[in-house]
């Protein structure tokens, strides 16, 4: 660097030192003595933060899309659309410079004239006066809105009326001015400054207030925005339109004074209405609750999945990622229509969830997660803020669909095959595992007297007698059945307690002494034969993944909602995801599929299938809890693995009754999985499979047709 250049670089800082001295001179002598020490103490931290100012990136909006690239949600803490200097209208640049810092292009990061004027004023005993340049304002706003945005105490220090803060800002501004061109500093300032609420930066402000872009801002629009940065709340055009108008016109006058616009134009510009859109800034929703009704639960699950895969909530809300999900918009809309037709969104006390997963040996992609409920905070509108599709939200259970786990465990252990006859009296009382002389037997009866005794496992899967399956469960053993449930897909479900929440271990909570609440289901049901009857909380999504595991030849994969994640620069972001596992032999999976293939032809959902004109080869298993507070259909067809569950979700659960619509009540013989939960499946899949060739069910493996040692 030449002598002249070095002098240019040193001069502003020397000026700052002189001005700092002037500021200090206006205070008491002890404070003046301490100012130099203070300046030295902050020097190192200032240098480090200044470097970050040049390199660090402000929070941006993360965009969540479906598999086709269509936006389903925007996630952010600060709504910001970054713009380059070339993307900012000349009107906007002139407006902000003319009202905030007319000497911006000639000063060295600080304004000696302004600071001298402020120092003279402050020496009289008043509060420290402003005189901050745009560069200094950028430093302050960057610290408040970016560096310390999650630290209220630090933000207060960034805005305190103190000499230390003034010195810090001034020194950082000088350093920044030496390394960054003026146009970039101005653009950086306009990108980081707040325009009220969650709207940050001129790009987002132009869109939110006027429905335009930063490069198309007119003089009145630019003047309004430039006026707001002084105090976004006071000059908010929606809440304080008179003050906003007065401030806007003051900016226009400043533009005339600076000769940025002719005086003749100012009259017209000042007569222009504020022109803002709507009744508040039109910023996009900032959470998954802003997603369409068919995508809200899916979006919430995708965010949770990202957090489990290595991204923090703050990273997601500020990183400016593009998250391409597996959501299939057609599947999602068709299934949403199906559940809404079955149970209206605002139906009192009845939820109908529906999950669709695409099977595969190398991944299980979630295509849709919907409910008659919508994801939101207004119960009166049928909304819920709980993810009732992903969580173990069906507190009453999926009924006899849990017999899949007992059947799979029996085949793997050799206790039974599809042709194995199972004892099936109308009723009996089973001795629980680990019983002693004080243990009561567990009474079980079939729902009706028309079942054969014995009954083959294949026929049992189609017609679902309780006695045969509790007997088989007792023979196989609870550890094997519970482990099979976890292996096939109930990973989260089995880790919850019998209330569908995390086990309660806090000694202060009286429930922590009750195994029903302090133990995970994987432990709680070790001595309870009721498990195969499906009377425990379950995740609808995970039940869909159970059939996806079977349809994938026995390979379990996590139900993934993510295709890819890229950062703000388009670079791929690696996620830590669970690997797929071969959890049962392919022969067991194929044989079990063959056993489940009769449900819609001769089994418990055959009547509903016939009424729907259903003819596709598929697999299915219905479930109905004892009091009909929950009914379920889980199955699959073609490349869709599905769960449809209808269950009581209000504070006063009752029996679910069939009808148009499905409702709570006392109907004597309540709803069944085949009559209430299966119809949305037929409705949705008929539409999705129109004109598609049938995909046959794999034949059973002879090795698993009969019991073997």
Distance between the termini: 87 Å
Query: Measured on Cα atoms, how large is the radius of gyration?
Result: 34 Å
Characterize the largest beta sheet: strand count, sense, and whether it forms a barrel: 6 strands, mixed
Which fold name corresponds to the CATH topology of the largest domain? Beta-lactamase
CATH architecture of the largest domain: 3-Layer(aba) Sandwich
Mean pLDDT score, rounded? 91
Biggest sheet: strand arrangement: 13-5-4-18-17-16
Give the helix tally: 25
- Residue ranges: pLDDT <50 for 5 or more in a row? 1-16, 22-39, 123-129
Structural class based on helices, strands and sheet pairing: alpha+beta
Beta-strand fraction estimate: 5-15%
Number of DSSP strand runs: 20
CATH class of the largest domain: Alpha Beta
Share of residues in helices: 40-55%
CATH superfamily (homologous) name of the largest domain: DD-peptidase/beta-lactamase superfamily
What's the number of structural domains?
4
Morphology call: elongated
Note down, in words, how this protein is organized:
- With 709 residues, this protein is α+β, with helices and mostly antiparallel strands.
- The chain is 41% helix and 12% strand.
- The chain has a six-stranded mixed sheet, with helices on both faces.
- Helix 1 (3-25) runs parallel beside helix 4 (112-122), helix 3 crosses helix 10 (219-228) and helix 10 packs across helix 11 (241-257).
- The radius of gyration is 34 Å and the shape is elongated.
- It starts with a helix and ends in a 21-residue tail after the last helix.
- Residues 1-16, 22-39 and 123-129 have low confidence and may be disordered.
